[in-house]
Amino acid sequence: MLEMRAIVTETVSDEATVQVLGSGCGHCNSEGGCGSGTLSKLFCSTKPRRFVVRNQVGAKVGDEVQVSLPDGILLRGALKLYVLPLVLLLAGGIAGAALASEGVSRDMYAVTGAVAGLLSGFAIAKLSSSGAGRAVATSILASNSGH
Length: 147
Prior knowledge:
This protein is an alpha+beta fold and 147 residues long. 39% of the residues lie in helices and 24% in strands. It has one domain (2-25, 38-142). Strands 1-2-3-5-4 form a 5-stranded mixed beta barrel. The radius of gyration is 21 Å and the shape is elongated.
């Protein structure tokens, strides 16, 4: 299970908006680190990232909480976001080419089918995302809210 520390910035019902403390595993500058911290500095925004999580511990605004991601959620998310659109892109291209008659229009049908498959893959990935695999605030590490 992946875990990280975060500060609660807002609560609504059984959900909390949290701002993650630090970045990743904390080994960005060490010799054995993967170097993704350097890449994120180059390509990502420097604004703090905020996420909505299930608030099963009843944390209040200002509390420092431990946020956990269920096992396998990153792999399932990567498969859904990368593999599904790629498979549908290829299937759409093949189907488009099969529907076309011989000649120049065949390429246009293949491209149209591929783009339709790709967009369908992204749409299915977006629509199929549910709260079942969401991150959960599992414990309060420090309370600044007075409870």
